[in-house]
Amino acid sequence: MITPTPTNKGLIKMIIVIVVALLILSYFGFNLRSLADSPTTQENFHYAINFIVDIWNNYLKTPVMYLWNDIFIKLIWTPALNVLQNQSAEARSVFFPIRS
Predict the structure, then answer these.
(1) Cα 5 to the chain's mean position, in Å?
(2) How far apart are CA 58 and CA 79, in angstroms?
(3) To the nearest 10°, the Cα dihedral for 76, 79, 80, 86?
(4) What SS3 string covers 32-95?
(5) Pairwise CA distance, residues 93 & 48, whole Å
(6) Residues 59-89, buried b or exposed e (16+ Cβ, 10 A)?
(7) What is the pLDDT of residues 45-88, one digit of tens each?
(8) DSSP state of 29
(9) Separation CA 74–CA 66 (nearest Å)
(10) Which residues neighbour 67 within 8 Å (Cβ) at sequence distance 6 or greater?
(11) Is the dihedral of CA 4, 9, 10, 13 positive or negative?
(12) Distance spanning both ends of the chain, measured CA to CA
């Protein structure tokens, strides 16, 4: 019989890799604080953030919001919520019948 292997080992492995990478960087004398505080790094991060925001606002926002509001919410979320509310009401009527 083949037993399935668990696939949820990624988080611990990633934490260990990050800790080992930080130890290696420390061993070779890299100071992450000075690297993060340098003006060049700050400018690069600001450029990357502005680039991502521009891509979102100019190209991705309209189709993603259409998919979210008009496809997911209207066609999937609202019908599923209605089904669950109807099942909940039916279950309440079965378990707690209304007595007159």
Answers:
(1) 25
(2) 31
(3) 180
(4) HHHHHHCHHHHHHHHHHHHHHHHHHHHHHHHHHHHHHHHHHHHHHHHHHHHHHHHHHHHHHHHH
(5) 56
(6) eeeeeeeeeeeeeeeeeeeeeeeeeeeeeee
(7) 999 999 999 999 999 999 999 999 999 999 999 999 998 888 87
(8) T
(9) 11
(10) none
(11) negative
(12) 58
| Dist CA 17 CA 20 (whole Å) | 5
Give Dmax over CA atoms of the chain in angstroms. 81
Q: How far apart are CA 27 and CA 21, in angstroms?
A: 10
The encoded tokens of residue 77 equal 């979320």
Q: Tell if the pTM clears 0.90, that is, is over it.
A: no
What phi-psi label fits residue 66: left (phi over 0), alpha (psi between -120 and 50 degrees) or beta? alpha
Residue with tokens 């209605």: 82
